Amino acid sequence: xxxxxxxxxxxxxxxxxxxxxxxxxxxxxxxxxxxxxxxxxxxxxxxxxxxxxxxxxxxxxxxxxxxxxxxxxxxxxxxxxxxxxxxxxxxxxxxxxxxxxxxxxxxxxxxxxxxxxxxxxxxxxxxxxxxxxxxxxxxxxxxxxxxxxxxxxxxxxxxxxxxxxxxxxxxxxxxxxxxxxxxxxxxxxxxxxxxxxxxxxxxxxxxxxxxxxxxxxxxxxxxxxxxxxxxxxxxxxxxxxxxxxxxxxxxxxxxxxxxxxxxxxxxxxxxxxxxxxxxxxxxxxxxxxxxxxxxxxxxxxxxxxxxxxxxxxxxxxxxxxxxxxxxxxxxxxxxxxxxxxxxxxxxxxxxxxxxxxxxxxxxxxxxxx
Amino acid sequence: xxxxxxxxxxxxxxxxxxxxxxxxxxxxxxxxxxxxxxxxxxxxxxxxxxxxxxxxxxxxxxxxxxxxxxxxxxxxxxxxxxxxxxxxxxxxxxxxxxxxxxxxxxxxxxxxxxxxxxxxxxxxxxxxxxxxxxxxxxxxxxxxxxxxxxxxxxxxxxxxxxxxxxxxxxxxxxxxxxxxxxxxxxxxxxxxxxxxxxxxxxxxxxxxxxxxxxxxxxxxxxxxxxxxxxxxxxxxxxxxxxxxxxxxxxxxxxxxxxxxxxxxxxxxxxxxxxxxxxxxxxxxxxxxxxxxxxxxxxxxxxxxxxxxxxxxxxxxx
Lengths: 369, 317
Ligand SMILES: Nc1ncnc2c1ncn2[C@@H]1O[C@H](COP(=O)(O)OP(=O)(O)O)[C@@H](O)[C@H]1O
Ligand SMILES: [Mg+2]
Known about the structure:
The complex is a heterodimer.
Chain A: H1 2-16, E1 18-31, E2 34-47, E3 51-55, H2 62-70, E4 78-85, E5 88-89, H3 95-101, E6 106-109, H4 113-116, H5 123-135, H6 139-152, H7 158-162, H8 171-183, E7 189-193, H9 201-218, E8 221-226, H10 229-232, E9 238-243, E10 246-252, H11 253-258, H12 263-270, H13 311-315, E11 321-323, E12 326-331, H14 340-351, H15 363-368
Helix pairs in contact in A: 5-6, 5-8, 6-8, 8-9
Chain B: H1 2-7, H2 9-29, H3 34-39, H4 46-56, H5 62-74, H6 88-123, H7 128-142, H8 145-159, H9 175-209, H10 212-219, H11 224-232, H12 238-261, H13 267-276, H14 280-308, H15 310-313
Helix pairs in contact in B: 2-14, 6-7, 6-9, 6-12, 7-9, 8-9, 8-12, 9-12, 10-11, 12-13, 12-14, 13-14
The complex binds adenosine-5'-diphosphate and magnesium ion.
């Protein structure tokens, strides 16, 4: 009796154990122009069965971060820091050990299903090859599994599909196939890198819902990468906002939308397409461009584009710190949104005529509604 | 797929017609009177010449002569040797197996070396193996085939005494000796191709290895050999196929030299000997045969594309 109780409690504690712990991860690419600091000191944790959204403009280092976690990087890349997956350090693993993790324990869904499936190979073997490789089952069993997988990701006539080539399927169907491939060996972590960016608006929601359903049914950890905050709203447990290789704000999803602290996150919220918008109103995209990752600015990386910017922002880089009283809401800003200091900074810039576009404070609330 | 191949047959026929016409014109373009080369220049009279011209149909207008020659050729009758009176087709049939065997051996060997070598050097581009390969290829390319052949004869026949220096044993007579006599000629022919093939495959393969579906295959945890040969090889074969097709001509050209050096009774030697002996009917027949084979082989190579790429097969090129 006491033994079973012990077992149960240990089972529960392992259930809550972290699946993924990323510690100060840095990914630098040596290039003729200099060292490209694509990911520059990222830390976060992900529990089993939870979903983390990683959001940022294009070029902020989301894909490089995803691939760094898996260590799917070009050979000459400099990688520093630690990636603990299920108690093992992936950064120390040999290629052969990594290959046992890839596809079996961590799987990835890529952005463009038009290019991520092999154009000259039938769908069937593209699904069964990893099943056969990792699980060592025979051809017939692998085929049965593939049919079941295709059915579970909502592909009609799965048996016929096995014999088809990728170009015979629509974009949405192809992404369902890549999801089936990712799920094939029952991974514990699924990394989806902009899984809907290349798809028609009409099928985006279906694919995101499919991912959500599969994630919770299989109790997988999931990292959902996107440039669109609207995609992660309501679909992830936590959100990390990335800018120029760093996390600039991180919080539980509801908390983030309710209490944005980082002006960059606020600016991202402005660029979400909203139902309440009239079809004529143009989307506001963030002015300016992200900094050059070879010659990074001294202070805050967002300073050059920030409506709150002050002299201090240009001189000193703000640390990633929690809000007092909310240890799980981190941000990286000297003059945070919604604080007295922030309001004063914004007001002084407005008075000095430095702001030519206004951020609409009502925007944030509508997302959750 | 069948329809796409059938659709290209008229084009094939036109090409063959053009080839045959040019070959036919060869006789009229070569300086000197063919009749004189048949009869010789001693002790002949104008009468004999006229009689021979009539006999050969040389007095008919050109289109008529072409039509009757083509009619015969289509039926496999390429005329008779002016020297030996042997039907040209018989001579070709007799010599063809030698050339084909050496050509196939060279081609197969070249591809057997190229596919792993090109794939690996692409996979580890700029690595040690890649740089060594580049250097060796460069050296090989700058050595003419006949020098290579003589060098090999010296090493393998004279020095090591492993292989016969010259001569030919038929496959049906003694398969082992046949292979021994085919080995060096095939190596000389094949090595020249390997350098070109490897470069073509390597550069296509490097491009393929950048593709998303390769990263996806890697993310599945597949072993490198599987990624290279199951995922990357097929989409990287298009340029190689083209070059192989075009190089069939080079193999025939190479056969002229190689068969001469190694004293092999193949088509190449037949052509060279006929040219020296001014056996024009034989030259014409052999050239027509080689040119037509070349056109047909290239047609077959083109249809292979559709096998390689399902997108073409489904008419969505
Ligand atoms: N192999 C590489 N070599 C050099 N720079 C790279 C390489 N891969 C990505 N980068 C750079 O890293 C930055 C982040 O890229 P990425 O992670 O793809 O952005 P995101 O996915 O957020 O759009 C970009 O500036 C990109 O140019
Ligand atoms: Mg990306």
